Amino acid sequence: MKIGIDARLIEETGVGRYIQNLIRELGQIDKENTYVVFLRKNYQLPNNRWSTRIVDVPWHSISEQLEMPKILSQEKLDLVHIPYHNPPIFYNGKIVITIHDLTILHFDTGRATTLPYPIYRLKRLGYYTELAIGLRRAKKIITVSATTKQEIVNHFHIDPEIITVTPEAADVGISRGKRLVADEYILYVGNAYPHKNLDALFDAWPGKIVLATPDDYFSKRLAKRKNVFMFGEASKDELANLYTYAHALVFPSLMEGFGLPGIEAMAIGTPVICSDIQVFREMYGNAAVMFNPNDSNDIAKKIKEVLGNEKLRKDLIAKGKKQASKYSWRKMAEQTLKIYESSSRL
Fold this sequence. Notes:
Layout: E1 2-6, H1 15-29, E2 34-39, E3 51-54, H2 62-74, E4 79-82, E5 95-99, H3 103-106, H4 117-137, E6 140-143, H5 146-156, E7 163-165, E8 186-189, H6 198-204, E9 209-212, H7 217-220, E10 228-230, H8 236-245, E11 248-251, H9 260-268, E12 272-275, H10 278-284, E13 289-291, H11 296-308, H12 310-324, H13 329-344
Parallel strand pairs: 1-2, 1-4, 2-3, 4-5, 5-6, 6-7, 8-9, 8-11, 9-10, 11-12, 12-13
Helix pairs in contact: 1-13, 6-11, 9-12
């Protein structure tokens, strides 16, 4: 079977980690199928047996919908995996699509964009249409949590039988290097979009907060606080260091598709304090202390509880390591390969 993987977002945060780990693990476990990986620029794949094709086509663009179907068809693929919610709706071949979250459906506000609001509304309609058509044409749909699976079923009325949950996993380890940030701190990892609810965290906590977040419009727009240290976008090694020396990871999001930073923190042995939302209850179980994300007083209370109670910290660390061990990139890739095989027969 000849399989294509659209990896144009391989160097982006979030979905890029998913693509990198998927490609690495598939290269180790699949010796039968051939692969073509589509990239926007040269990228050193871990597997030299795989073919690559450079296609400098922006995602979520008109050119994507016009050019990608032709490019994919030229390769005569048996199956294409689209690992993000940007399916080529005019492509007639078989596709598998991964949906990481449906945040865009829930946060339709001017704060979620750098565009003028009318243009944003038009672009959002394009996203929604693109996604709705892609989901209906996909042979199989992959998502990273049961919470997101149920949202897909509810919003798009998709048969749940064609949706498979393949959770993400941690791939960072304890850092033995010198700490990158002085003093005691709590940590946040991720982008600074409005649904991440960072202002509520800032209102709640006067102590040092380190943000490992891209230096972009959204992080620059955050309220300036003396106790907030903008680390910027962290490499894998830098992330390991930040997790290792943090007193806790705090995750105040209003919505997530999975919540990978929490699993990474747990794997390293850093306590997790997070929003009491469905997906975190699913993914973290009883291994995190949860708060009401709309109540800064409750956020402050839960942070104080964890930082001031050594017995609780040790309990969270032990439970967190056990919880993180349930998730594996190898298992995710094995599940994905089975999905490829079953999709090719449809």
